[in-house]
Amino acid sequence: MRVLLLGGTTEASQLARAMAEARIDAVFSYAGRTNAPVVQPLPMRVGGFGGFEGLAEYLREQRISHVIDATHPFAAGMSRNAVTACAQMGVALLRLERSAWVPQAGDDWTFLPRLEDVPNALPDTPARVFLAIGKKHIGLFAAKPQHHYLVRVVDAMQGVLPLPIVEVLVARPPFTVEAEAALMQRHCITHLVCKNGGGTGANAKLIAARHLKLPVFMAQRPDLPKAQTVSSGAEAMDWLSHVADRGV
Ligand code: 3Y8
Ligand code: NAP
Known about the structure:
Layout: E1 3-6, H1 10-21, E2 26-30, E3 44-46, H2 51-61, E4 66-69, H3 76-89, E5 92-96, E6 108-112, H4 118-121, E7 128-131, E8 148-153, E9 166-170, H5 177-186, E10 191-195, H6 204-211, E11 215-219, E12 229-230, H7 233-245
Parallel strand pairs: 1-2, 1-4, 2-3, 4-5, 5-12, 6-11, 7-8, 7-10, 8-9, 10-11
């Protein structure tokens, strides 16, 4: 058995530790989106594969027998390619996907089908908006230039942002509830924008928003093609031990 673990999430890093302890022959894969990704206890590869064709070729060349897709729920392109390439190569695929966040008492959440729908949902009167969505989709908010934006990214960015009133915060998640609340109070934030990433690595801002009684505008996850899916690392380890017992 030789496993390709598509990573980039808290759950992927937790699973990598369990797989390393179990001495499973595996490779951990990053896209290479950040300058210094967390080092993993498995051999790592960094960078795209070159579409589903490149991934299929990688599976063949590296004699990968099993793929675990533990990428972020918004990494839809990678997940789609994994389904296509694994079907094409007859390689077993398991998706590890954490549950979506659901609002609790005291939460003031507005769900939008996609990130693209968020700017239109923001008020027209000038507000102070915290964009906790990384850097890929910041340009969407040029549609509402009247707001003061606080943008948080993992690595410093080059070039000028298409937002006339913007502050950029370079910080690596995860964060604590206290730090998130202090940040939003310091910047007099009136609205929080985020994705429904789920998990524990990014939910502190939601708890802080609840305490501060701030409205949250949350993009729902993209649809993914069907695949065998589990929601915990333990279930993923069970899947691996089951296939290992079968000697495949
Ligand atoms: C490169 C690997 C681990 C994984 C940690 C999780 C938790 C912290 C929360 C906020 C939201 C955001 C962002 C975020 C979180 C975890 C997890 C998660 C959100 C790293 C990582 C990589 C990335 C890529 C990066 C994206 C960006 C998104 C920042 C490592 C730290 C906003 C998603 O600069 C860029 O281009 C960043 C791009 C994709 C979304 C975007 O569109 O900008 N993640 N994040 C992975 C790779 O190269 O394959 O650097 O160590 C991983 C983690 N990010 O091992 O503990 O599991 O969710 N990541 C979002 O949820 O909205 C931050 O600021 O509050
Ligand atoms: P994406 O849009 O689904 O994928 C775009 C391309 O990036 C893929 O087609 C693939 O390139 C490459 N890629 C993505 N994940 C990869 C991986 N783990 N290993 C190797 N190549 C990968 O992906 P994304 O949303 O940019 O996310 C990139 C990475 O950041 C993923 O590891 C994801 O888990 C992590 N992440 C993303 C978010 C988010 O909000 N999107 C949040 C937290 C963490 P090729 O087509 O060339 O193979």
